[in-house]
Write a structure and sequence with these properties.
- Helices cover about 10% and strands about 10% of the residues.
- By secondary structure, it is largely without helices or strands.
- The protein has a two-stranded antiparallel sheet with strand order 1-2.
- It starts with 17 loop residues before the first helix and ends in a 36-residue tail after the last strand.
- The relative contact order is 0.18.
Amino acid sequence: MIIDDLSNLKAYIAIHPALKSIEKYLSGRNLSAYPDGRVDLEDIGGFVNVQTIPPKTADRAVWKSHKNMIDVQIPLTGDEVIGYTP
């Protein structure tokens, strides 16, 4: 789990090569203007899923995990509660 500001994404590219494609895709875009929907990232076989939803509060949060994917959460409005365990 990495918790940081999106402006520091380049610093983590060495951890996983897919982060380079994600950073390239997001760079210079107005994230607030994205339409909802799925955008495939052909070069890495991944995708960006844009969703306009209210940030989750602690009472609405659910446990989830990923073993085979990277999940980049970028809340654009409000604060979202994210629980995690090492």
